[in-house]
Design goal:
By secondary structure, the protein is an alpha/beta fold. It has a single domain, classed as Rossmann fold (3-Layer(aba) Sandwich), CATH 3.40.50.720. Strands 3-2-1-4-5-6-7 form a 7-stranded parallel β-sheet, with helices on both faces.
Length: 263
């Protein structure tokens, strides 16, 4: 196992991508602290699954946008497990709406959770890692931080900020043997996306056809990339963003062009 005796803290770990990441890290031998803001029961269920795998687990409730709460969370994890070797900044939220009508409260809350929260968690855990001169920080960004999506001004801005923050912290902390990198998922079949597909907000066939891989991604595929970045196999990777989107962001062709013989 690649992460034997390592301690990981995963934010937003009660469901979806965060849950998949927490379980994948545990399968590779890591003990895992699971952060959630409100879904304590769901996080406790994930913790029980981790314990069944033979690893230690704890649930720490905290709003990542609250610096004092984040500092206290890190103290609790260090007190319980002795250290933090791996931090996965996964906590996020959906902010969708026409930019001309987006309320200040929603904008500020989105930026606070998805960008400021990543900084607060990285800062608090990073101080512990600097003391030990070792650590891995993996930030979950998004293809929305690379390309523009209408009505995603807040979400896209926050995720673009995460990508730049990853570069900055990666370059700043590499001298302490701390690797800071990010993952930018594309359309992944989380519970929210599955709900939106069922509701008709998204057309799965259309999304699949637009994706070179021909399908939506699975949470476990984001988790696989996270395990790689958390392992020693990635020790010379610094400040980078790995895109896990089935080729979505690389693809710039239109299927209709295939019908035009002069192109």
């Amino acid at each position: 196992m690649r992460l034997t005796d390592k301690v990981a803290l995963v934010t937003g770990a009660s469901r979806g991508i965060g849950q998949a990441i927490a379980l994948a890290l545990a399968r590779e031998g890591a003990d895992v602290a699971l952060n959630c803001s409100t879904s304590v029961k769901a996080a406790e269920e994930v913790a029980q699954e981790i314990k069944k795998l033979g690893q230690r687990a704890m649930v720490v409730q905290a709003d990542v946008a609250d610096k004092a709460a984040v500092d206290e969370m890190v103290k609790k994890v260090v007190a319980e497990f002795g250290r933090i070797d791996i931090l996965v900044n996964n906590a996020g939220m959906s902010v969708v709406g026409a930019s001309s009508e987006l309320e200040e409260e929603r904008w500020r809350r989105g930026i606070d959770v998805m960008l400021t929260g990543v900084f607060f968690c990285s800062q608090a855990a990073g101080k512990e890692m600097i003391k030990r001169r070792s650590g891995k920080i993996i930030n979950i960004a998004s293809v929305n931080g690379i390309g523009a999506f209408p009505e995603r001004a807040c979400y896209g801005s926050a995720k673009a900020g995460v990508i730049q923050l990853t570069r900055t912290l990666g370059c700043e902390w590499a001298k302490y043997n701390i690797n800071v990198n990010a993952i930018a998922p594309g359309y992944i079949k989380t519970r929210l996306v599955t709900y939106l597909l069922a509701k008709g907000a998204y057309d799965e066939k259309e999304l699949a056809n637009r994706t070179p891989a021909g399908r939506l991604g699975e949470c476990e595929e984001v988790a696989d990339a996270t395990v790689f970045l958390a392992s020693e196999e990635s020790k010379y990777i610094v400040g980078q963003t790995i895109v896990v989107d089935g080729g979505w962001s690389a693809y710039m062709y239109l299927e209709s062009w295939l019908e035009k013989s002069d192109l």
